[in-house]
Amino acid sequence: MVSFAWSPTVTRQSRAFAFGLAAVLAWSTVATAFKISLQHMSPAQLVLYACAASLVSLLAILAGQRRLGDYLSSLGSNWRRSLTLGAINPFVYYLILFQAYSLLPAQEAQAINYTWALTMTLLAVPLLRQALTVRDALAALVCYLGVLVIGTRGDVLGLSFSDAHGVLFALASTVLWAAYWIFNTRDTREPVLALAQNFTFALPLILAWCAVTGELRLVAWQGLAGAAYVGALEMGFTFVLWLSAMKLTESTAKIANLIFLSPLLSLLLIHQIVGEPIYPSTLTGLVLILGGLVLQKLPLGRQVLIRPR
């Protein structure tokens, strides 16, 4: 996927780890970039400019791989799938996610967003007809207890949400992201090529939305710089790094577990750069969310709770 010059002594697994760690480090910065960018532009504007930057970066990657011809030749035959998936991600998903970030502290929005992996397991029951196990149900209870702790800033019994709309937007974004990856399982296209085509058809949708809602206005250069960073890293190049890591690794679990570093590094950056004080409720809720995700991986409670017919 990505070509670099490596020493002959560097093993395939070491390269996989390097790519995976680079992706995780990049993803750890995006919550901070979201929050800073939203100080200079609206959520819709951030989606528009970030999507444009991402498309440019993806096309540059395809050009470097000499696959622009494949991209162009299959664009017409894949337009329906690209339009559907592009409408979900990046259009609606990032519009809702950035709305959550505009309403909530970055630390709360990013912590809630980490429940998407569990949301995907729950959605797989009706959409893919997969069974729900006792382990999955326990993991869901632990994760969503964490969301409750974060959303209420520790006032769980009082159910006093710091911003109920922000929490709902953050949870809705996890449903959209999980649904996107479930629908993506039926997509047989090469991932980078597919993502570039999806973004190609999403960009006019985002442009039309901004035109209708009066968001086609000049924005500060700081916002444009943030959008370019978000588009190139969050939506573009980092995705390719992660795919490269998963392709090279001898153990998917070893690379996948790197993702647990991201929320902790992200909190540190949010505190140091954005200047948010880290709430004890955020730390408690994040521990519960990560604990639920770890619980889901443990070899216990495999008894089937729900088996779709």
Summarize the structure.
The protein is mostly helical.
Plain-language structure description:
- There is one protein chain.
- The longest helix has 28 residues, at 221-248.
- The chain is built from 14 helices and two strands; from the N terminus they run H-H-H-H-H-H-H-E-H-H-H-H-H-H-H-E.
- It has a two-stranded antiparallel ribbon.
- It has one domain (12-306).
- By secondary structure, the chain is mostly helical.
- It has helices at residues 12-27, 30-37, 43-64, 68-73, 79-103, 106-113, 116-128, 134-152, 164-184, 191-212, 221-248, 252-256, 262-274, 280-297; strands spanning 132-133, 304-306.
- The termini are far apart.
Could you list some keywords that capture this structure?
309 residues; mainly alpha; two-stranded antiparallel sheet; globular
